[in-house]
What does this fold into?
Amino acid sequence: MDNVRTPYALQTREELLAVKEKHQAKLDKWGEMNLTLDLTRGKPSQAQLDLSSGMLNIIGDRGDCFSESGLDCRNYGILDGLPETKKLFGDLLGLPADSILVLGNSSLNVMYDTMVRAMLFGVSGGYEPWSRQGRIKFVCPSPGYDRHFTICRTMGIEMVPVKMNADGPDMDEVYNIACSDPSVKGIWCVPKFSNPEGITYSDEIVDKLAAMKPAAPDFRIFWDNAYAVHELYDEQTHLANIFDYAREYGTEDNIFYFASTSKITFPGSGLAIMAASEKNLEQIRPIIATQTIGYDKINQMRHVKFFKNTDGIREHMKKHAEILRPKFELVEDVFARKLDGYDIAHWSKPRGGYFISLYVENGCARRVYQLARSVGVTLTPAGSTYPYGRDPQDSNLRIAPTYPEMDELKLATDILCSCIKLATVEKLLKY
Amino acid sequence: MDNVRTPYALQTREELLAVKEKHQAKLDKWGEMNLTLDLTRGKPSQAQLDLSSGMLNIIGDRGDCFSESGLDCRNYGILDGLPETKKLFGDLLGLPADSILVLGNSSLNVMYDTMVRAMLFGVSGGYEPWSRQGRIKFVCPSPGYDRHFTICRTMGIEMVPVKMNADGPDMDEVYNIACSDPSVKGIWCVPKFSNPEGITYSDEIVDKLAAMKPAAPDFRIFWDNAYAVHELYDEQTHLANIFDYAREYGTEDNIFYFASTSKITFPGSGLAIMAASEKNLEQIRPIIATQTIGYDKINQMRHVKFFKNTDGIREHMKKHAEILRPKFELVEDVFARKLDGYDIAHWSKPRGGYFISLYVENGCARRVYQLARSVGVTLTPAGSTYPYGRDPQDSNLRIAPTYPEMDELKLATDILCSCIKLATVEKLLKY
It folds into this structure.
């Protein structure tokens, strides 16, 4: 590693050409290796999935299938979750058990269904269905979660990006938009270890969101607490309970709260929940009762028996952290060793969650994505973290270090660093 | 048992008063027993659920979690079902595996979601969303499945009842409605062992449905094959493959096909599928990809490993039949012994499915329901089998004999017969 580095912007044309030649040669070499390395999605690794192996056969026969109340979990009955499952999530998230619905295997699906209900039936309070109110809008703190944006796009909801600061969405922007325009019906939030930034909303931001009086009386905060217990380090990252704040302001009805065990147990074979005020639940439950007779209670029972209580989940999450932490640190370390001093990139150092957010020079993100792809390293497409896939600076890339093994991750990150250098040099040489 | 019986309508007032007194006394006695007997819903019994106990821990560790293609079923990946699950259902139902989507735990939910998609996005072919076409209508063969009707009611879709004949819906009525009025967007069908009649559509009816050219170009047949392999007897009941007929007429796009394992393995913890034409699937898949990353593939794998193939399912269904058949025969036997000859009721003798459809004298069904309920026997509310809960004759009751144990079922049916007699006598004495 060089001791003193010169920012690329200050290097001579000859120096830059040398950098270009060096890293082009490296890419050529990697290109011959037929690599397929995937840094696209926040997938747990096999070692993480193995942590939940004990859950697979924890329900071994009919005797394991009866809930505390004597209900046979193998049969019809109970619409919105076993009481013991609601209690488990309630204890974990600091929410009253009776404010929780346990709904299926995917919080994305629960969020989509929640949007569908609002579109077709409106939200509680007797408001017009959103689909009958003409053009409506959602506030989208950006960069953010691409699948949230895809839901809006599919529904024809206009997305209004707002800036993410170090402590959460820029609340001046949020207020300006949400409090002036009644066609703005909601905001997407990943309040803890946000996707992709890893930012956790400060108490002040949570307070401002709870205090907000939107222009639309049927405005909803979609609070996707996807990484509620997903710390990478022993230190716990505090996120305020938004319902506690909302109660002070009488705005509990503004909040739809989501979480899941997709990255606690098994993605696709976990549990998803929604929490909401009693008034919201009164409106939602009969619609869900039309939609289904009930969700997979045997799987609910698996989770309850496997974890027993909140401590069980927290202990389990420490094991995830032990597997994940070295991967995050590896990427951050490679970035620091290869990129520090050149002034060509910066990146988040998250304390939890599933992503590292990487910023390269403006106008270079798409090119980095292409270069990496050309040698078999797949990144989430540049732009994905912004509404309509349009990163106005073409600068952000979302790195998902969780799935690959360490040696693959090291190689992919090395390659990525060369791609960053090459793309930056290409840009500079154009001027 | 009396050898010669006089129809109630021909009995004297004194005779009827004696009947009334006798059965009122019986009800009074039962009323003191604090009974809670439930004939409401098509729930499998515990003995039936025990048949699938081996499925609970058939996925014991990570080694069991890999699909034929090497995919780790514990992780994200695959939107619409493992290939082996599609093959299993395809073989069972005589459908191409690639026409099948394996979607979640509930076919009711799949049907609801299908209706939601049509409402918000329209059906394939670029048609307007149903929710933007003003008042729309669905054809509802009646009596039918109450939860189908609830979906329409919740969506604000007007239901147009048509008569059920012994071989399926009255196709003259169906054609009259569907082929003349472009606001008629679909029809609900339970084509085999229909709920509640136990009727299986004849080839001629299936042919007419497939041949139909509805006035609405975006018309869809919601084909809920809920009881595809649910025979009560060794003899197999033939249902034509509607896609085979539709292909002849070029109407495959008119069909949305649904099925599930709710009454094969575990209600709520089974698998639900949808099958459709390639053109329909092309429109549906991207919307589902917005809704979810995927469904519970571990549970798909449980089903595949447990059954292995179609023969496995058919053998399994014979065991269900052995448990169910005596229950159906018990009810039919009690009905025959207690009611034959009085000309006060008739009922279906289904060869499969989950229900017996009971017809009492016009204007008596609600009263029978009330009387039964007053002594602790709960029936599906009278009228439930008709759109808007309105049985024009107030005559039909749906009997679900599957869940209770034999002794309870015997008692409940005895009580029901007394309620029928009492209600009929009350009616006759009014004149």
